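seq/struct pair 1
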Amino acid sequence: MRLTRRTRVTADVRPGFPAAEAPALQTTLAGVLTAAERATGRPVPVELTFDTGRGDVLAVVCRNRVVGFVPAEHAATVRAQRDDAGPRAVLVAPGVLHADGDLWRVWVGAVPDDGPSAADPGSEALGAPEPTVLGIPLRRTDD
């Protein structure tokens, strides 16, 4: 059996965009970064890929983990490029993981000279996950 490497096709995502769902995926984003990358708080250049999710959603994947989703206004363009690349191809784009206050965010594409722009508030439909201990949710009561 001969193993073949999948063809890599670079996506045209100019001028770039913030991936959606940063608050809901903070645990995953922290897991993607090394301890040194998290500690410095500086932007981390990464290679991102795009994969199909549930329904019409396109997932943004970094280091084999889903770290966000392509916003609706960019989904048609990225989907068309993914379809043109073919079923055995991997659509890749440069990106940056960067700190934005207490959150880590994903910028897809080349970073503008003035830095990555903030995500639209409407693009984050999922809230931040509730805190858990070993997968068991912690319920707090405010007195």
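seq/struct pair 2
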Amino acid sequence: MLAGGGTAGHVEPALAVADALRAAEPRTQLTLLGTATGLEARLVPARGYELATVPKVPMPRRPTPALLKLPVRLFDAVRQAGATLDRVRADVVVGFGGYVSVPAYLAARRRGIPIVVHEANPLPGMANRLGARFTSFVATSYPSTPLRGATLTGIPLRAQILTLDRSPAASRAARARYGLDPHRPTLLVFGGSQGARSLNEVMTAAAQSLASAGVQVLHAAGPKNFDEVAAALPRGLPAPYELLPYLDDIGSAYAAADMTLCRSGAMTCAELAAVGLPAAYVPLPHGNGEQRRNALPTVEAGGGLLVDDADLDEDWLLANVLPVLTSPERLAKMSAACAGTGYPQAAAAIVAMVRDAAATRRHKRPRHAAS
């Protein structure tokens, strides 16, 4: 059973490991544990896997009345996770953090089922800090992640990304799909599934200058922002500017691009490193600073640029991104440096860890136990 739900940063690695497990041993029975309302409710069945659900049990960050209900809600989630473990007779639980991993870890621990933990971020969340206490099979994506005894594997990625063709011919074909010029330098802009206001604002301000320099743009503004951005873009640009609400095929967008302007979520950084696509990273200006940490290995290797959200403006973009886009030599060097920071064997390493964990099982089948 693979436990990962809520965000793409939890769901996509779980699906990548599921795909790798199925490829390595087609007879393996795989069940993904998630919630009924997260991305997994759509993505998991679409990939052909069974989805079992538990209630979402967010952990309050400060004392609130919701904290009083936490034990009852967590007990119910652990009970439901345990019922799924018993039903599918799981041999191993693989957790990827987030809401659903805590009940999965606790239910597995009670049954003596081996646990494998994967942490995608430089700073582990509460769920994986707990899970790592229950097992010696812990995988991390950054060498600095503070989980004792962990193995550095990187983030597992789906085959579409790992096998992406970014050759000149593939690039021309991808650009044609979006109505772009096959020969112009191309900037891809996206800010996550809902877009990013600061990225949208800087692009509408810089669109004329970029186009005048010969740069074309593929820009996913976010469904809620599309009309506003469309209205703000200058008319009659001298280079193509393809504005979309969202990207339904990120692989083809990567193939079309020479460089990207984006946030620096863990999955985004891992995918760009895997395909060797340089980026100007604009970390989300909230949380504990983990998005900045996500981008640092690639930036320090010379495969990307980094700018604070508050410092991103038209002048910065034209002074830092435009010179890269208009220099094939700089693009080639950054692309090679970016690709050198990836971990293409991450999924295979975690599959090996799952096999090792299964081999430690004292009993062939899980013992049924009350949750």
